[in-house]
Amino acid sequence: MNAYAPTTSRTALSVNVNKVALVRNTRHLGIPSVTRAAQLCLEAGAQGITVHPRPDERHIRAQDLFELAALMRGWPGREFNIEGNPFHNLMDFVRQLRPQQATFVPDSQDQFTSDHGWSFPADAERLRPLIAECRALGVRVSLFMDPVPEQMAQARAAGADRVELYTEPYAAAWGQAGQGAQLARYAAAAQAALDAGLGVNAGHDLSRDNLADFLRAVPGVAEVSIGHALISDALELGYAATVQAYLRCIHQAFAG
Known about the structure:
About 45% of the residues lie in helices and about 15% in strands. With about 260 residues, it is of the alpha/beta class. It has a domain at about 5-140 and about 205-210 and about 220-255: Aldolase class I (TIM Barrel, Alpha-Beta Barrel), CATH 3.20.20.70.
């Protein structure tokens, strides 16, 4: 067993393979393979695989979801996380594939990338029945949220199991004068979530540079979902070495 296998990490690493699909889609050769990338990341110790299919299939395609779900069935104890807007195409995949986790993200169909979280109480009523449906299917629900402490109890009241804190503002401030203030925001939001009975996930622009600092400062992070930076690193280092590097960052955040 490698030194940073799933049983030893306090925060799980879920690898988002969207960017692998984006490169593949520039040609008609089927390479690089999304499922092969996921397999290599799992073999290296990643605790989960994340995808965020958009309705236009500009990267992850419907077939990828079914192939990845089949792959994940061979990895008991690892998690398949499907992200997306539940008012677009996400719920169809959840109903058919029943992943371990569905992450609800309020992105528009033509949005370049996710850039904000849900708003409470404004979104509560329309989210509540879809959250309930997922939970009835045995699927954990995480809501993509800005680090606003007072919204966490409302997310829990809507039925969510977890929140995923949108971390781009922290990543943009990392290494600059505003880093401490951003970390304080996220720490307060995470603590509010934990106090409300929610699990805490985090993601967006986390990297080898900024991950350990985030985990040291923010309490109770159960999972980080990392795609762009991790796949970029893998172009230079390879999947296995890159996953190991991110697992070391997690390990180092909790060492001592």
